[in-house]
Amino acid sequence: MTTMTYRQALHDTLRAEMLRDENVFLLGEEIGVFEGSYKITAGLLAEFGEKRVRDTPIAEEGFTGAAIGAAMLGLRPVVEIMTINFSLLALDQIVNHAAKIYGMFGGQAKVPLVIRTPGGGGQQLGATHSQNIELYYAFVPGLKVVAPSTPADAKALLMAAIRDDDPVLFLENLALYNTKGDVPDDDTPAEIGKAAVTRPGRDLTLIGYSRMAHIAAQVADQLAASDGLDIEVIDLRSLRPLDRPTIIESVMKTHAAVVVEDDWLTYGIGAEVAATISDGAFDYLDAPVRRVAMAEVPLPYSKPLETAALPSVDDVINAVHQTLDAVGRRHQKVGHD
Amino acid sequence: MTNQMNASRKASGPKLDATPAKPTVKAAAKKSTRVRAVKRTPAEVTRLTEFYRQMLLIRRFEERAARSYTQALIGGYCHLNLGEEAAVVGLLSALAPTDYLFTNYREHGYAINRGIDPNRVMAELYGRIDGVSKGWGGSMHMFDLTHRLLGGYGIVGGQIPLATGAALAIDYRGGSDVVMCTMGDGTTNVGAFHESLNIAALWNLPIVYVIINNRLGMGTTVEKSSAEPELFRRGAAYRIESARVDGLDPLAVAEASAQAVAVARSGKPYLLEVVSERLRGHSVVDPAKYRSETEVAQLREHDPVVTFGAQLVRDGVIDANGMAAIEHEVTARVDEAAAFAEASPTPDVATLFDYNYATPVANDSRRLPGQPLFEPAPRPDLGEDQ
Ligand SMILES: Cc1ncc(C[n+]2csc(CCOP(=O)(O)OP(=O)(O)O)c2C)c(N)n1
Ligand SMILES: [Mg+2]
Q1: Which pTM was predicted?
Q2: What positions of A carry a catalytic annotation?
Q3: Residue whose CA is closest, atom 5 of ligand 1?
Q4: In CA terms, which of A142, A308, B104, B374 is 20 to 30 Å from B291?
């Protein structure tokens, strides 16, 4: 076990995978000489050379598509798209090509591609640079979408993504790059498609992913201290496939759920999770599933406005309280402990 | 391409007599290669005859596809290579079997000419299990790894970045294969075209980009859609060597294609514009009302299959009996393909989820529309077991 940042875990894993398999190569804007906008690829150009660490022109559609084509011939490209906002320029190649090629040609061509890209928000980057639009990709069969929240998962999921024969959108988060955690030294890839119960509990299920998994964990800690609540936290980790059984199993036990998401509420990831719960655990629910999500505005620059629009720990605490209050469970709980 | 050809085709379309951009256009592509009455070696006779046979096969195949479409044996969109036979046959004649081809949705002719069994191409049109893409692709999405046809693509321009990436993979591994990527004239206006040419030039990728300029998008002319209608000139913006060739002359196309492929094999991209014709509508269902009777009549006069066949007869390469024999053989081949396609089963619905992912993944959804997400949960309140 080594303690390191999420950034370091990504960097080390990229490096290890490049050493392991010479078909693995990196391409993206400013990843070589500039060492990446967020320095994930620092030092890799010097170590591996221009063939395997390629600075591309600012042409998301062109270089993402080229990576897909190279993957069709058996290479294992890892594309860095500077932030997920810019992936919109590559949407056609990702959705109409990467996601379709395996099925549309009757299973004749695999696309072992990884697209690494950070989402974010809360960095005062304004409306075009603060979106969490992983949902666009999670909607599409043929893609896999993973979203690690810890350095350990960053390593294990990136290994899994690179070794997977399908196109994987690998969602990072600007606010997580400097977070630290323990990372196992062994090389065991994670299983894509599996959520993790990161904190077991009995009173309510709190569901999030990426940065929101941290908010969920924080809320659980806080409510344990303040209200004596025993909250179960699920980190989705994989948005497609979505691990529905883990969600249902948890809600059958806790009888209540709140989803925390860093995207817009309407049609968002939380809507899918809530619908899943209503479908699979309706009779077990004591209260409607609540979603805590971004305000439905293009995210403003000005700090107070930005803060107001983003889900906070307090917002989640309120939602948990309201959910439990509605069925009188919080009061019982407080009385018991 | 010949000046004579420029003059004769001016009437039916936009002016094409570009004085070639000096540094970019190769003499080879300009030179006339029209067949002349000269003594030919047996090898030449075989080659010319084979060119004609291939062109006629595409012609008859496409006519048959149109018929099957009207009989509702083929669904979806169906774009034909009618009028582009010389372009297809000439272009692919320069490729080695190990080279890669990416095309757009107008690709039946390319698939057949690449050597894929016409039975399997027709079966794909019919949506049957024996189709090249097992019935998953249809007319626009033919794929066959063995023949290195890496896909027809229905999204205009979608194939261009992919083909560029395939060339990158070849270069990465130090191989000597090349990629050919075809597209229409209208397609040169998508961003992916420009992004890809820039990347290919920067990275010296072994790829030939081919523009089949049939002078129409669906119904929009080149002049109305391309600010530089002499499309081969667009290579200059990326310092990519380029040329324009008469796409009705299979031998001229073959020569230009060989030149382009040689450049690509030396590790540089190339842009080849093939000026061609579309004899019918954009797709089978398009009556092409935006074209006048005279224009269509003129098109027919330039029909590349008829013209080339007549030329070969005139030059004594094939005699009347030989022509009849080819016609007979090709028609029988297409009949066989249609019969094969009709007899081939449709894919089993149980295979619907077989191609979701290449690497099996936990919690992959395999639910049909009417099925619930979950089996009904037990109701403890009704005394059911949990
Ligand atoms: C991105 C995209 N936009 C529009 C279309 C619809 N469409 C199909 S073919 C076509 C015209 C293309 O013209 P051209 O590139 O000249 O090729 P041609 O059909 O003449 O071979 C259009 C607009 C599409 N398939 N994809
Ligand atoms: Mg056209």
Answers
A1: 0.93
A2: 60, 129
A3: B156
A4: B104
